[in-house]
Design goal:
It contains 16 helices and eight strands. A hairpin with a 2-residue loop joins β1 and β2. By secondary structure, the chain is an alpha+beta fold.
Length: about 375
């Protein structure tokens, strides 16, 4: 027998696709939660997050010569299942054997100092969570995200992997296929990128809007013959201000903003009377002009109770403020509640739920039972 006889027989792309499709159909009967990678055409990724993931892998010399082995596997549907969780990706890849191979990729989370620096760089750059997820941001911010070793994307040193195939290569084609599969999956659900890297996507948008709000209010703090209090602004904008900020004495003339931002709105804080000193005097016309620039839509869509009117919570009417609704739901629950359930029951966005929960913790009214579950403080 010649050496040529030891090579495996040639298998066409059509046959590979057919084999993968047949195996996927079998697995779907046993594993209803299976999540295959299915491409539209031959392009591996189409969105900013998917393309950037692939670009990051391909720019490192450690991977550039090896990762290409997985492209054809992704294109003919061999990635039968790919699951993304915090710090880990598991995948089933159909190879030459009858049973699919199991690949596991581990990725280290973004460090605390690196994440803090990233949030600072994003301040004032992002308008909403939606813009972030669809990759609608400036090239400067894109460069920040893609910066080698200091950006959002992992380096080869932060990635480890293994596969149960017999391939001796340090990166087999099944692992390479799974790595490209991550890029395709990010096309469908870009928020999974932040899950994988062990950080909260809300942090970037929250920090951005908080910074913009604080800057707006600090510029509005000026001397004036007139004052603006809670009642004035509530009447002016037709909304009930949640928790107005406490400001320093007459000499300092500072506003400590405690706005609760979300990707789609900014609650408008206003100065209020305190025990010592007089209300902070500001130029009402300039203050209002700057607030209106936030857009009428943001004010109208603010999920805050209107004075004299009730808001809906799961079909029921209530005059409670958002923070009161969250506190009531948590304290009345025997086993506690998470942010998702609170958002569903109140109609309040999850970003604001997190802010309200944080405030209730500071007030000593609730505590975290286990990760993500909030209960009444004992």
């Amino acid at each position: 027998m010649s050496d040529w006889d030891s090579y495996p027989p040639y298998v066409s792309v059509a046959e590979k696709k057919q084999k993968a499709a047949k195996k996927l159909k079998q697995l779907q009967k046993k594993m209803p939660d299976i999540k295959p990678i299915s491409l539209t055409g031959t392009v591996l990724a189409q969105t900013w997050w998917g393309k950037s993931w692939n670009r990051n892998l391909e720019r490192y010399a450690d991977y550039s010569n090896r990762i290409g082995r997985g492209r054809s596997y992704v294109r003919h549907g061999a990635v039968l299942d790919l699951q993304i969780a915090e710090g880990v990706v598991t995948a089933l890849i159909q190879g030459s054997a009858s049973k699919p191979y199991q690949a596991r990729i581990r990725i280290k989370p973004i460090g605390a100092s690196q994440w803090s620096a990233m949030k600072k760089q994003c301040e004032g750059q992002l308008k909403s969570l939606h813009d972030l997820l669809i990759g609608k941001f400036s090239k400067d911010l894109s460069d920040v995200f893609l910066a080698e070793r200091s950006g959002l994307f992992p380096t080869p040193q932060e990635i480890s992997f293994d596969c149960n195939c017999p391939d001796w290569a340090s990166m087999c084609k099944h692992v390479a296929a799974a790595l490209y599969g991550i890029g395709a999956r990010l096309d469908e659900a870009p928020s999974l990128f932040f899950t994988l890297r062990g950080v909260r996507i809300d942090d970037l948008v929250t920090e951005t809007i908080q910074g913009a709000t604080a800057e707006l209010l600090s510029k509005a703090a000026q001397k004036s013959a007139r004052t603006v209090d809670d009642a004035d602004l509530s009447s002016l904008f037709g909304i009930d201000l949640d928790t107005p900020p406490v400001f320093a004495g007459k000499k300092e003339k500072q506003i400590v903003a405690k706005a609760i931002p979300t990707p789609h709105k900014i609650d408008i804080p206003a100065p209020r009377q305190v025990t010592k000193g007089k209300p902070l005097t500001i130029n009402q016309e300039k203050f209002v002009k700057k607030i209106i620039k936030l857009s009428e839509r943001q004010v109208k869509t603010a999920r805050l109770p209107i004075p004299g009117k009730s808001i809906s919570t799961q079909g029921k009417k209530t005059n409670m403020l958002p923070i009161e609704q969250v506190e009531a739901l948590i304290t009345r629950s025997e086993n506690g509640m998470n942010a998702t359930t609170l958002a569903e029951k109140t109609g309040i966005t999850k970003v604001k739920i997190y802010a309200l929960v944080h405030r209730l913790k500071q007030q000593g009214k609730i505590e975290t039972k286990i990760h993500g579950i909030y209960v009444k403080r004992k």
